[in-house]
Amino acid sequence: MNISYNWLKELIDFDLPATELAENLTRIGLAVDGVHPAGDDFVFDIDLTSNRPDCLSHLGVAREIGVFRRQPLAKEPAVDPSPASIPYPSALAGDVVKIEDPELCYRFTARIIREVKIGPSPKWLIDRLETIVERSINNVADITNYVMHELGQPMHAFDLDKLSENRIVVRTARPGETIQTLDEVERKLDSSMLAICDAVRPVAVAGVMGGFDSGITENTRNVLLEVAYFDRRSIRRTSRKLNLTTEASYRFERGADIMNLQRASDRAADLIGLLAGGEPGEFVDVFPTPLTPNEVQSKDISAAVKRLTGIEVYAKECVQILAALGIAEKEPAVFVSPSWRHDIAIEEDLVEEVARHVGYDKITNELPPAYGAGEYQATEPQELAIRQVLVDSGFDEAVNYSFIDTKYDEIYETVPGLVDERIENRFVEIRDPVIEGAVRMRPTLLPGLVDAIRLNFNQQNKNLRLFELGKAFGAANSEDGLPNERELFALAITGSEISENRAMPGRELDFYDAKGAVESALETAGYLDLSFAAADVKHLRSGQSASILVSGKSVGTIGRLNEEIAGNYKFRQPVYVAEIDLQTVLSERPDPVRYAPLPRYPSVVRDVSFEVNRYTTFDSIRNAIAEEGIELCRGVSFVDVYEGKGERSLTIRIEYRSDERTLIQDEVDQVHASLVRVVEERVKIKQRI
Amino acid sequence: MSEENRQIDKIGEAFEQEFGRFADLKLDSIGIGDAEAFLREVGELKVKHTGKKSAIAEAKKLIGKVSPEERGAFGQQVQSIESTMTSQIAEAETRLKAFIAKAKTESERLDVTIPGRRARTGHLHPMTIVRQKIEDIFVSMGYAIEDDREIENDYYNFDALNIPEGHPARESQDTFYTTDGLALRSQTSTVQIRAMERRGAPIRILAPGRVFRRDTPDMTHTPMFHQLEGLCVDKGITMAHLKGTVTEWLQRLFGKDTKTRFRPSYFPFTEPSAEFDFSCFVCHGTGKVEGQRCRPCKGSGWIELGGSGMVHPNVLRACNIDPTVYSGFAFGFGLERMAALMYSIDDIRHMYDNDVRFLEQFR
């Protein structure tokens, strides 16, 4: 909001340079974002919080200045609401103004001003409005705008002769009613919207914008000046529905000063008389719904200030500050909020008023007394370890939006147990996305990673390793209606190994690089019982896909992205992805670390190759050996797979060791030969000689 | 001159003839292979001319046979020839060896500026880095890290936070709703409520997490971002503790000379409320860097960071904590903004593009 320094000075006589005033206003909570010179004036750009509509005017800001300068406002006329004080003849309300919805329109004043001459405003008025970046229209429109910026009360001037039967009905719109507003837009009204109507039709959207047809033109002679108070929620609702925010709606939806209507009307009428030659006529004030001021109990305001802020302020000073703000101590321990404040309801509100005027800078810096030990979330150290081991092995951490397109719904398989296939709408969907199409709360992290791969391909980055930790979502038939949320871990790799600061890429990445990353992540987190079982997975290429098992329980999938998805992305190199239900994995206790005594005798190793086809697995050979349970056999490791000339052979290394003695060659050869025979029989393969 | 004298001279002449080209050998234009061949040849000539079976060795045997009166002169002659040969050979060997050693050194000279050999290291996301730094500080101050649901019902996202029906924050204009009418949490304060329900008072927690607001992406907004909120509820907690705590962690993050500033503000879930700023870590509050307007603080010397205040009694009551016994403070701010400040990121949308050229800049 723009506030003029000179204008403030008309409302309160204070002696403070503009920059110092700005600092003081910021200090008390009226944040001045900038002070800009404008001729012989300064404009303050003030960013007000939504609870302070009372400061959306020069009067409101002047009032705050009065509090911290301990000065009264200049020339503020006493507002006496008695009818006798009304300086203009009053008419019978019901004839001119009828409020049909007193719960939406609390108070409505109308003043008739006859024989006005519409024309340009005088220079001082134009200048004043231009200073606060408002455009001049004509004298009467400018005056209503001027008074709003001065006193905070929005108002509207109608051309009286364009109002059917020269009267006003305040009512909700009827179905099908429309109005062309001042901005020349035809707007459909509905029965939730309050309208200012004449005898026949709406002539203004109450508190938002006047109608075009009944507006002031250069031919207007007689004016009806509306100054009213509307229900805040009703104005907000209407403004949102019409997608129309105006200076008026902005103030009304935050709350105007219901006791300030007459003063504002008087001020405008005076100015119209002065500048447009009008002759003020009847004044009508219909006030069906009074607002009871809030009463706030505070037995010991000084103690309350001390309790919440730690600052010592004498009760007398507290009361002084509150009184200057218009918050009167009606009787001991009871404070009454003024009609312009809608935000004073409890003692804590009083404390804030006192504290901000004493100054938050008077509050000391203290640390709370010592307390128990801090702690990370239970699984955080494991998650951190996973992140670190992946980063150390060349992965970059990605973070994607939680909402994705629905087109991925049927393409990707989700981790076990997250999405309940029995539920009809098994995914979570959001209404009104801001990114086109992104209405699905992601049931998998993979589409985000694959999209990221495409983005990087487009930037000529072909060698990528990405991972993400984050939540995925699935609908649930839960008691509280809340969906499943599950922390997942996913990764995607493509291209070749790369070295830091060296341009030449190395070996091409494959399935086993992805698998290795999964292994190191889960092992780092403390889970050693991992296995991978060939499995068909919707989004993975058949024959290069597996489910991932931790302690025999399926927790995710790994493999090469299938041709269909890769084709849609126009990927020309294989992409390998994995996704794991990390939350489920981490909910299990990690495998304990146990020391094994170091071997006292050397081990002997023997390599052996078998002729295999693509269905004979390394695991089946290893298991056959393990099942044999030979004491001297201490381990089986993978050496190599050789393929060529229609042959495929798998070489493994078997380690033999005794805890009692150094093994001799003959003994090892014997055991080894018998193990090879076992493998041949059990797995039905032949040793390759 | 005797026959012997002439023989000795012949030995000298024969040596000169064969070795002459090595005596004034030009090394400028030869390669390491030539030098090694020369060295071998010199070695062979050394054996031939000064070895046990050489002519000079034979001649030495004659010394005893020469008449005593001529023996001295003869011996001198033999020795002179021999020493000439040995020194010439030694000199040639030394030169050649030095040449070879130098050439070898040169041929194996390394370019020590070529980058070291190591696999490419990956990078944590800037959100993770900043979050961890701040979490570490708060854990050391006795806070427990908490997170909770990202999709919430209205009670946790609004009601319990004293945001009544009809409040602008509740409108779908600002908040994402699911088709089932649930809210994507619009602030991590939801975690405060659930944590207070679970743990009761006293409590000290720090809640970092994703939040969602219906902002169209631009340079300073994304529809999803991260917030970090702190909450401390105990007997006798005041705004002084809020100021002290916020100042402490900002000083630990940005240095001991960091100052903070609290300005009155408004949030439905705190009363009194304050926004907090800290003195710019680039210009140290002066607003200028080398005479130019400081960028992170836009020349003001202050960086606006977040909101804070004393927990509203309605919020405490919603969590069954008696506001007449306990009081507490809460504060919160956006992690993207923090990271943008710390790393001078001009467009926070980069945070969610996952462009490796962006990600690899953070360590």
What's the number of helices of chain A? 19
Shape of chain B: rod-shaped
Q: Please report the number of helical segments of chain B.
A: 11
Give the total of beta strands of chain A: 31
CATH architecture of the largest domain in chain B: 2-Layer Sandwich
Number of domains of chain B: 2
The largest interface is: A-B, 93 and 91 residues
Oligomeric state of the chains present here: heterodimer
Question: Within the largest sheet of chain B, what's the order of strands?
Answer: 1-4-5-11-10-7-6
Catalogue the unreliable spans of chain A. Answer: 78-92
- Structural class call of chain B reads alpha+beta
What integer value in Å does the Rg of chain A equal? Answer: 39 Å
Largest sheet of chain B: 7 strands, mixed
Q: Under CATH, the topology of the largest domain in chain A is which?
A: BirA Bifunctional Protein, domain 2
CATH superfamily caption of the largest domain in chain A: Bira Bifunctional Protein, Domain 2
CATH topology of the largest domain in chain B: BirA Bifunctional Protein, domain 2
Question: What does it look like?
Answer:
The complex is a heterodimer of chains A (689) and B (363). By secondary structure, chain A is an alpha+beta fold. Chain A has 5 domains: 2-69, Phenylalanyl-tRNA Synthetase, Chain B, domain 1; 87-286, Phenylalanyl-tRNA Synthetase, Chain B, domain 3; 295-362, 2-Layer Sandwich (Phenylalanyl-tRNA Synthetase, Chain B, domain 1), CATH 3.30.56; 380-587, Bira Bifunctional Protein, Domain 2 (BirA Bifunctional Protein, domain 2, 2-Layer Sandwich); 604-687, Alpha-Beta Plaits, CATH 3.30.70. Chain A is 30% helix and 25% strand. In chain A, helix 6 packs antiparallel against helix 9 (261-276) and helix 7 packs antiparallel against helix 8 (247-254). Chain A is elongated and about 125 Å long. The N and C termini of chain A lie far apart (89 Å). Chain B is of the alpha+beta class and 363 residues long. Chain B folds into 2 domains: 3-107; 126-359, BirA Bifunctional Protein, domain 2 (2-Layer Sandwich), CATH 3.30.930. Chain B has 11 helices and 11 strands. Chain B has helices at 3-23, 32-50, 55-63, 68-107, 126-140, 154-157, 189-199, 239-254, 313-318, 335-343, 356-359; strands spanning 144-145, 151-152, 183-184, 203-212, 224-234, 260-267, 270-279, 288-289, 292-293, 302-311, 327-334. In chain B, the strands form 3 sheets. Chain B has a 7-stranded mixed β-sheet, sandwiched between helices. In chain B, helix 1 runs antiparallel to helix 3 (55-63). The model of chain B has no long low-confidence stretch (mean pLDDT 91).
